[in-house]
Design goal:
By secondary structure, this protein is α/β, with parallel strands linked by helices. The chain is 35% helix and 23% strand. Strands 2-1-3-4-5-6-7-8 form an 8-stranded mixed sheet. A hairpin with a 3-residue loop joins strand 4 and strand 5. 47% of the residues are buried.
C-alpha cells in the first residue's frame, strides 16, 4: 500500500508524491497566494474520514480548501486550528458553513489567544480584506487531548507547552509527516514579529531541532512559495534564516538597516513585508 501526497497550487496545478507504507493515507497541501502570506492548509484523508489542518486567511482561501475536501470525497470530521494567527483560523467560518458536522478545534493556548485577540485582529484585517474577511469568526472548541485520528491513524499535536504553546505543530507518525506550524517557512522572509524575546527565539530553534530529530519524510511548512519541496529543507531554511536574523539585530542601527542586511542575504525570498514588520518590532520601532 502507499501514502499519497498531493500539492495543490493556486493555479490548480498539482504534483503528486508517493511513499511506501503499510496503510493508505492521503495528504494534500493547499497553498494560498502571497497576498495570504503563502499560508498552507493540509488535508489528511483516510478510507472514510478527512481532517483539515489550517483554514486559510480569506474566504477565498477557505473555498479552495473546501474544493480539495469535496474532491477527496471523504467525510470531514475535524478542522484543526494549529496556530492563533488569523491566516490559520479566519477561513474557519466559511469551512464550517460548508461542513457543519465538522468540529473546529484547537489546543487550549491556541483557542485562548484567538479569543483574547479576535476583536483587534478583525479591526486590523476586516477593512483590508473586505468581502474576503470572515463576518462572524469562529473560535475553536478546546481539545482535551493532544492525539487525534483519521481512520485510526494517529495525528499528534506537539509543542503544546512552554514559550510557544500558542503555535504547536502536528506530527503524523504513520506518514512520518510534519505539518501545521508557523515556525516553518520555505523561501519566504520568515515572520518574526510574534517572537520578540531571546527566550522565544531559542525555544523556536529548539523546536526546529526537535522536528529534525523526528526524521520526517514529509514536511509541510506553515508558509511557502507555491511548488516548493515538502521536505526537510524548510527546517534548514528557517533555522538558518532565524540565526541570521538574530545575529543581525545588534549589528543594525535601525529596522531599515536590519531589513537591508537580510534582503542581501536572502535576495530571492518572497514576502518582504514579513521582514519589514519583523525588523521594526525587533528594533523597537513598532509594537506588535
Amino acid at each position: 500500500m502507499k501514502y499519497l501526497i498531493t500539492i495543490s497550487a493556486i493555479a490548480l496545478a498539482s504534483i503528486t508524491f508517493f511513499a511506501q507504507a503499510a496503510e493508505p493515507l492521503k495528504i494534500s497541501v493547499v497553498t494560498a497566494p502571497e497576498t495570504s502570506f503563502g499560508v498552507n492548509a493540509t488535508l489528511v484523508t483516510g478510507d472514510t474520514e478527512a481532517m483539515v489542518i489550517g483554514t486559510g486567511f480569506t474566504r477565498a482561501d477557505a473555498l479552495r480548501i473546501a474544493a480539495a475536501v469535496l474532491d477527496g470525497g471523504k467525510a470531514l470530521k475535524t478542522i484543526l486550528i494549529s496556530d492563533a494567527d488569523p491566516d490559520y483560523y479566519f477561513g474557519a467560518e466559511a469551512l464550517q458553513a460548508l461542513f457543519p458536522d465538522a468540529q473546529v478545534v484547537a489546543t487550549q493556548p491556541v483557542a485562548q489567544e484567538i479569543r483574547e485577540h479576535l476583536q483587534e485582529k478583525m479591526k486590523v484585517w476586516g477593512p483590508r480584506l473586505g468581502a474576503n474577511a470572515p463576518q462572524r469568526p469562529v473560535v475553536p472548541q478546546v481539545l482535551n487531548t493532544t492525539v487525534l485520528s483519521v481512520d485510526g491513524h494517529s495525528v499528534e499535536i506537539r509543542g503544546t507547552t512552554g514559550e510557544l504553546a500558542n503555535r504547536p505543530y502536528v506530527w503524523i507518525p504513520s506518514a512520518r509527516a510534519i505539518t501545521g506550524n508557523v515556525a516553518l517557512w520555505s523561501n519566504l522572509h520568515v515572520w518574526t514579529a510574534n517572537t520578540q524575546t531571546p527566550a522565544q527565539r531559542l525555544t523556536w530553534l529548539a523546536q526546529l531541532d526537535e522536528m529534525q530529530a523526528l526524521k520526517p519524510a514529509l514536511v509541510v511548512p506553515g508558509h511557502m512559495k507555491v511548488g516548493d519541496a515538502l521536505d526537510g529543507r524548510s527546517i534548514d531554511f528557517t533555522r538558518r534564516y532565524l540565526k541570521d536574523f538574530i545575529a543581525a539585530i545588534p549589528q543594525a542601527k535601525d529596522s531599515q538597516a536590519l531589513s537591508t542586511a537580510l534582503k542581501k542575504q536572502y535576495p530571492d525570498a518572497g514576502l518582504p513585508i514579513a521582514l519589514d514588520i519583523g525588523a521594526k518590532v525587533a528594533k523597537g520601532e513598532m509594537a506588535w
